[in-house]
Task: structure prediction
Amino acid sequence: MPATLLGPYTRTILVVAVLAATLAFALSGVRGEVYGNLLPMFEWMETTWFGFIGKTWGAAFATIQAFHLLGLALLGGSVLVAEGRLLGVFLTDTPQGTITARCNRMFNIALATLIATGVFMACGVALKIYYLPVYWYKMLALCGGALFHYLVRQPLVERAPGEVNPWLLKLVAVASIMIWFTVAATGRWIGFSG
Amino acid sequence: MLNEFIYNIAVWLDDTRWSTMLHESYYMYNWVESTHVLTLMLSLGMLFLIDLRMLGLALPDVPASRIAQRLNLPMLVGFSVMVITGILLFYAVPVRSAQSVWMRIKLVLMVGLLINAILFHKKMNAAGANWDNEPKAPRNLRIGAMLSLGGWAIVVTCGRFIAYDWFDCIYTDSEFIAFVAGCLDDQTRF
Result:
């Protein structure tokens, strides 16, 4: 039913709606209200087992941090190879669809690793990161990146070759690299803040 | 003898103006450290894809030698940046870094991994092209890929551990740790 109403532009309309909702959220008073209401959740996070382990055993926290970095490396590799192929830099003699589909699998595994280890790390320092603006920038970049990847990039690269303007694909590739670099850089900056 | 030599070199580096400037510059030090960490996405990212391809876990329908050859250059560029930024990070905090147990394990492992990479490439070239389109590489190459993946995972973990002061010479009471870290009885700089 919704697909019939929206015609052939379902995803485009969905993306614009998400962006509009994000802007409305960011610019209205709702943001401050939600931010205040999230404090109990962050306080609770520190009382969980993850929070307890993260605060008590520095070695466990550091090991999870290392796995977070390994996930970041895999995510970087899969993004750079896939987007490099779209930009015509890497593996140009291999079909674009093969590279992007295979790299997407690696990307999913890497993102799942990053989220799982990230949640653990966040529980250990929940109240610290709650008050760090850069943590929220990272969450914004991460959510934006995931939405961009699954709602914009994937539908475009999954289309048949020639169906999408190659320059649009190149633009998407550049945007993707920039978004994931921002996610990584803001994550790194959390370590220097607070 | 060797530890004393390393300590004296580290103290000499520590006394240089640039070392102090780099250490005390909040933004410069953080830029260098961030570059070191973020370049993991390029260097280890490419390396992981090459190794996982050999194990049949990534890009199994793309010829293995093609993956190894094409991703080799960006991987080496990434590693070069990591080496340069790594040297700068060492230079910024030379005495503590030279006497870090984790730094020592990391460096020894990296030498081992360099030898593994050279052997891996030799074996890959010697293996010919008849396995190139197979999902998995021959057994000896798979072993090399597993060693590489495991080794680099430990290197990253050691790199992360360097930031913690658990085994710093100034705090440790363990003779074994002091031996591995190269702590000196009469050292005045930490």
